[in-house]
Write a structure and sequence with these properties.
By secondary structure, the chain is α/β, with parallel strands linked by helices. Helices cover 28% and strands 32% of the residues. It has 6 helices and 9 strands. The strands form 2 sheets. The protein has a 7-stranded mixed beta sheet with strand order 3-2-1-4-5-9-8, with helices on both faces. The longest helix has 14 residues. The C terminus is likely disordered.
Length: 212
């Protein structure tokens, strides 16, 4: 992500996504979170939180959740100004997450997986830090190739096959109960880029071992 670790450019990231690209994914994720009807007091880990766009969308819907932001870029985290976030952690979602097992009641990742070629580690990390019965929502640009593939060479953005992603989620106890495809953001002359959303529940009675 070109803006991620540059303080001078990070301040333009949200304006570019929302103002120039008409970014819809946070609103769709917030709507699905509301449909999953989390209990009051639910704390959801926001992987790749950026400047907190998902939190702002959730707050606008007055859903009964709070969020914890995690992002690899400290400059992005510093720009979060939504009170719905109860914590911020600078870490890589593909590495070992710095939280004890069963810390959170849910996990979301909106716009993260298009930067990650092999998301299995992200899913395993997420499954470890959420409780049985926790909710999850993941979005990504879809393809039907059975594997990850570059769809934007300029920004090295990656698409994923929904069938492959569902299988990877199931392998760590994350059971998909809802999915949809929607126009996510506008990309110049290319028109709208599509995102696919997978959501559901953690069905494991015990958290899985970490994938090495």
């Amino acid at each position: 992500m070109r803006y991620a670790n540059d303080d001078r450019l990070a301040v333009h990231y949200e304006r570019h996504l929302v103002g120039d690209c008409h970014y819809r994914t946070p609103e769709v994720v917030a709507e699905v979170l509301e449909k999953l009807a989390p209990k009051p007091g639910t704390v959801v880990l926001d992987l790749g939180a950026g400047t907190g766009l998902v939190g702002k969308a959730v707050a606008r819907r007055a859903a009964p959740v709070t969020l914890w932001a995690l992002d690899v870029a400290e400059p992005m985290l510093r720009l979060i100004d939504a009170a719905i976030y109860v914590g911020r952690t600078c870490a890589d979602a593909s590495a070992n997450l710095p939280f004890p097992a069963r810390t959170f009641d849910g996990v979301v990742a909106a716009g993260l997986l298009e930067h990650i070629e092999e998301p299995a580690r992200v899913f395993a990390n997420a499954a470890r830090v959420i409780r049985p019965g926790a909710i999850f929502v993941f979005t990504f640009p879809p393809n039907h190739d059975g594997r990850a593939g570059i769809f934007d060479s300029e920004d090295a953005l990656v698409s994923h096959d929904p069938v492959t992603v569902r299988a990877s989620l199931a392998s760590v106890g994350l059971h998909v109960t809802y999915e949809e495809t929607f126009p996510a953001y506008e990309s110049g002359a290319s028109g709208f880029v599509t995102h696919h959303l997978l959501a559901g529940l953690c069905r494991l009675e015990e958290n899985p071992c970490e994938i090495c």
